[in-house]
Specification:
Helix content is about 35%, strand content about 25%. The chain contains 9 helices and 10 strands. The strands form 2 sheets. It has a 6-stranded mixed beta sheet with strand order 6-7-8-3-9-10, sandwiched between helices. Strands 2-1-4-5 form a 4-stranded antiparallel beta sheet, covered by helices on one side. The radius of gyration is 18 Å and the shape is globular. The relative contact order is 0.17.
């Protein structure tokens, strides 16, 4: 397993937002994490990326314990994330945003490489535009480009299709499908059609605990998942 999470916990003022989570991510797979609002999905992503420190448990990348490493050091090791709310420099050009991501990850300032990353996320020819004038879906594409520019082998995608119209969502869905052939991906997403189309495995998080993990068909049929999340009587 390229990423292994063992007994991970995060406590806020006595409340366990992430409660004894065990999670494995195999190289080359897209593993989705689903669950109702407030289940702890984004907190889990924060813990994996290094934005938050866990209260207990360990995170290992390629067998190396990275639990105490900063977000910056995790990026250098090949673990990068996108956010529910885009975090771009709106007054910089699209190309300058990618160049900054390259430099931040310790790579040289290479305009050709920056343009190649833009091409990979469907933004070829948009490099001279200010990031602030991009449409919402294009901003999410650019954010994926920034994650790729770090050289990440693992992408942590936190609701990449949130707030999109149908056309934008279709475009980003296609982009993630293309990326899953090149990267290992942990995906948090509320769009169940997208999750079941994309995922190799799915874990269901409810009140901070994983109640089921398995192939998409297993999760569709799982009685506890149907009761807790899909809203059906088992």
């Amino acid at each position: 397993m390229i990423l292994r999470v063992s007994r991970l916990q995060k406590r806020f003022n006595g409340v366990l937002a992430v409660d004894d989570v065990n999670l494995d991510l195999a190289e080359g797979e897209l593993h989705a994490v689903i669950g109702p609002n407030g289940a702890g999905k984004t907190t889990l992503i924060h813990l994996l990326s290094g934005a938050l420190e866990p209260s207990a448990g360990t995170i290992a990348l390629d067998g190396r314990d990275i639990t105490g490493l900063s977000m910056h050091r995790r990026v250098r090791l090949g673990l990068a994330r996108s956010f529910q709310i885009t975090s771009l420099f709106p007054n910089f050009t699209v190309l300058e945003n990618v160049a900054l991501a390259l430099q931040g990850a310790g790579h040289s300032d290479d305009p050709d490489r920056a343009r190649a990353e833009l091409d990979a996320v469907g933004l070829a020819g948009r490099g001279d535009q200010l990031a602030g004038v991009l449409a919402h879906g294009e901003r999410r594409q650019l954010e994926l480009g920034l994650a790729l520019a770090t050289g990440a082998r693992i992408l942590l995608l936190d609701e990449p299709m949130a707030g999109m119209g149908p056309e934008e969502a279709v475009r980003v869905l296609g982009l993630i499908e293309a990326l899953k052939r090149q990267r290992t991906i942990l995906l948090v997403e509320h769009d169940m059609d997208a999750v079941f189309r994309l995922a190799d495995r799915i874990s269901t998080l409810v009140q901070g605990r994983i109640i089921a993990s398995g192939a998409p068909d297993e999760i569709r049929r799982h009685p506890e998942v149907r009761r807790a999340y899909l809203g059906e009587d088992a």
